[in-house]
């Protein structure tokens, strides 16, 4: 299904991004791991290649325009084209809205939201020259729709991704490029065994999520058979945001 695909995964060195990299590699795609974490990025690319898959690590800070341009150029030089972009890189910060500085706000928005626009711009320039077209998927969050205290910049960045998704889907549609986003709920990227029963029970499906749950949604949204799907957000949260909780 993905043998002809060249996939760029930002923030692909660990966590959800790593799960996405493995899912595409296992399905025959050529995968570019773009990350600031050089050690883990190289390690994952090497592991994939030793298993007979095709992966390349590119050091890139997606909050920097010049790194984004260089990332896409290196992808073209190595694999010839780009058919899928997964905008996964992102970070979270707890800061009180009483204390947040302009610099903190801009820094988080630059990493989580501005990067999505400019990675999409550079990838789409290549995708529109492909016979197969292209697919862009960005990682938003259920925090685009609900909040804990002190998460204003993160929530705004993820809400921005949901809006940017339908805007880009509209603009890139005529060039045969689909644009969608995924809102993960609680996806455990650390030690799953440390989770408590109460953590699992707050999900309708009875468990906390894992990176593979998000990878499955990426595969769906970038499957050439599903090109009728564009401009949408898919919530992948085990039903956590649908569970009404009253105090007992
Ligand atoms: N884990 C969750 O529960 C959850 C829930 C909702 C949304 N998300 C979103 O999913 C995405 C992945 O989350 P995760 O939990 O795997 O995070 P993570 O922190 O485990 O991994 C993020 C990766 O992105 C990389 N990265 C960070 N800033 C970067 C930059 N400027 N340039 C390039 N790479 C950069 C990091 O080095 C790391 O490899 C993020 O966008 C996050 O906001 C995660």
Explained architecture:
- It is a single chain.
- The chain has 248 residues and is α/β, with parallel strands linked by helices.
- The protein has a single domain, classed as Rossmann fold, CATH 3.40.50.720.
- Helices cover 42% and strands 16% of the residues.
- Strands 3-2-1-4-5-6-7 form a seven-stranded parallel beta sheet, with helices on both faces.
- Nicotinamide-adenine-dinucleotide binds next to helix 1.
Query: What name does the CATH topology carry?
Result: Rossmann fold
The kinds of small molecule bound in this structure are: nicotinamide-adenine-dinucleotide
Number of separate strands: 7
User: What Rg do the Cα atoms give?
Assistant: 18 Å
Helix count? Answer: 7
Main sheet makeup? 7 strands, parallel
Please report the distance between the alpha carbons of the first and last residues: 49 Å
What is the CATH architecture assignment?
3-Layer(aba) Sandwich
Can you write the helix and strand succession as a string? EHEHEHEHEHEHHE
Low-confidence stretches: none
| Proportion of residues in β-strands | 15-25%
EC number: 1.1.1.47
Protein name: Glucose 1-dehydrogenase 4
Family: Belongs to the short-chain dehydrogenases/reductases (SDR) family.
GO molecular function: glucose 1-dehydrogenase [NAD(P)+] activity
